[in-house]
Write a sequence for this structure.
């Protein structure tokens, strides 16, 4: 059976070749004629063997090729999966790097803010130390000047000119006294007595004084929340803050325009709190804004420095904002400032809330 | 007229106050530090002691303590122009130690003489 099957296979192969190439059939015929001395069976046997070999070889090659293709497909599939996995990993890593980058940028910003605050604090401490150091001798010298100026006035013997000169000396000495007093405020403003008060009342009193100081030059637009704003403050010092910021606003607007003064309840996050060296939590912000000339970015970093001023010589001591800074720090708060040259400036004096504002308090509208 | 002991280490300030007090009709003895001031005090009777706080040797607080320890019938006025921290704290201490009144330098003549008069008439 196997022999016949093999013969049939060989015949099929031969037929295939013959059908594929008639010329080859002719040649085989001629060969068979030429070599008729040979037995036809032997020729066929050779052909059969050769065809069998070809068949087996073709099966083997087919098997090898099919296997290679299958393995290649599997490899390609694995490769594709690996590519997807790699892309996923790259995307995930990119997201992680983005997050890390954002965090790093935030940390750098926070560090810059902390360094800036620390530098400011150190400057104030240095000025405070200097002020404390010279205050004793300086005040004694001023005491001598004021004492003799007063005696000159007493002994003027009716000379209005001499009395006037004595008064000029006294005025100069009083200004010096006020200056050294402002400097001394940096040293230990935290020793000032503080009581829990409604921030709205303190600001209203400050606005009255500011209104009187400003006169008709600028309008003041106050806005207060409808609920009490409890803060632990020294009212006199906070009034100084309002006056200093208000008068700066008037100056920035060239004595015309409107000063916005409002109170806001704000929540200070741990990051902001850390950057400003305060405890996170609930605060009240006193916002003093103007539509004046604004502050250029190059100047903004120096505005709280003692004796730094953009005013003409004699127009300002350059201590106003330093005093604001010192007072607010002594109240456990901080000052935030944003400004755009040509559009205006916005100061936010942020003080810690003394007591939680309860629902009952909320209904006790003082407005 | 009252007898006043003035203890102040700054010569010019002391001379100015002496002139001011004498012009107002008071008799003034002066000392340049706490030690000399207490020596002067122990030998005489005074109605009022005016003392600075920050001085070499014995300071003004020691003077106040020494005088009050003696339970002498004398008023004490403490003056200081120290840094706010020092002035505030030490002037408060001076009151605790027995000073009748404190005054921060610099002050105007009227203010000073008014405080002196009030202490002498109290």
């Amino acid at each position: 059976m196997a022999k016949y099957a093999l013969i049939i296979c060989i015949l099929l192969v031969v037929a295939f070749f013959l059908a594929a190439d008639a010329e080859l059939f002719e040649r085989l015929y001629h060969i068979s004629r030429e070599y008729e001395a040979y037995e036809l069976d032997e020729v066929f046997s050779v052909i059969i063997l050769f065809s069998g070999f070809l068949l087996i070889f073709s099966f083997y090659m087919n098997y090898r090729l099919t296997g290679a293709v299958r393995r290649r497909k599997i490899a390609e599939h694995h490769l594709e999966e690996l590519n997807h996995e790699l892309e996923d990993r790259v995307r995930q890593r990119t997201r992680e790097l983005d997050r890390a980058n954002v965090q790093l940028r935030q940390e750098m910003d926070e560090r810059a803010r902390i360094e800036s605050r620390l530098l400011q604090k150190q400057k104030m401490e240095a000025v405070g130390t200097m002020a404390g150091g010279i205050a004793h001798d300086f005040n004694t010298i001023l005491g001598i000047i004021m004492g003799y100026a007063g005696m000159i006035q007493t002994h003027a013997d009716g000379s209005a000119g001499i009395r006037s000169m004595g008064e000029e000396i006294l005025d100069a000495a009083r200004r010096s006294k006020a200056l050294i007093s402002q400097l001394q405020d940096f040293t230990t403003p935290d020793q000032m007595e503080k009581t829990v008060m409604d921030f709205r009342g303190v600001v209203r009193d400050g606005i009255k004084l500011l209104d009187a100081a400003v006169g008709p030059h600028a309008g003041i637009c106050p806005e207060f929340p409808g609920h009490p704003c409890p803060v632990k403050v020294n009212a006199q010092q906070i009034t100084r803050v309002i006056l200093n910021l208000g008068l700066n606003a008037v100056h920035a607007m060239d004595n015309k325009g409107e000063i916005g003064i409002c109170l806001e309840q704000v929540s200070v996050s741990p990051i902001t709190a850390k950057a400003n060296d305060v405890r996170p939590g609930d605060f009240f912000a006193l916002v003093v804004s103007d539509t004046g000339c604004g502050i250029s970015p190059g100047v903004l970093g120096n505005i709280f420095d003692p004796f730094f001023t953009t005013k003409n010589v004699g127009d300002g001591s350059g201590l106003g904002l330093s005093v604001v800074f010192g007072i607010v720090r002594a109240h456990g708060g901080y000052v935030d400032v944003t400004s755009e040259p040509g559009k205006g400036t916005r100061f936010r004096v942020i003080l810690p809330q003394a007591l939680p504002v309860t629902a009952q308090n909320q209904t006790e509208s003082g407005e | 007229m009252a007898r006043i002991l003035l203890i102040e280490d700054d010569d010019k300030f002391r001379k100015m106050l002496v002139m001011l007090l004498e012009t107002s009709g008071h008799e003034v003895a002066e000392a340049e530090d706490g030690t000399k001031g207490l020596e002067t005090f122990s030998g005489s009777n005074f109605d009022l002691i005016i003392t600075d706080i920050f001085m070499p040797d014995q300071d003004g607080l020691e003077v106040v303590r020494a005088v009050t320890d003696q339970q002498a019938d004398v008023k004490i006025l403490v003056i200081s122009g120290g840094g706010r921290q020092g002035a505030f704290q030490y002037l408060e201490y001076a009151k605790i130690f027995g000073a009748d009144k404190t005054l921060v330098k610099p002050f105007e003549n009227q203010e000073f003489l008014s405080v002196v008069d009030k202490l002498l008439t109290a």
User: Anything to note?
Assistant: The two ends of chain A are 116 Å apart (CA to CA). Confidence is low (pLDDT under 50) at residues 359-367 of chain A. The longest helix of chain A spans residues 40-154.
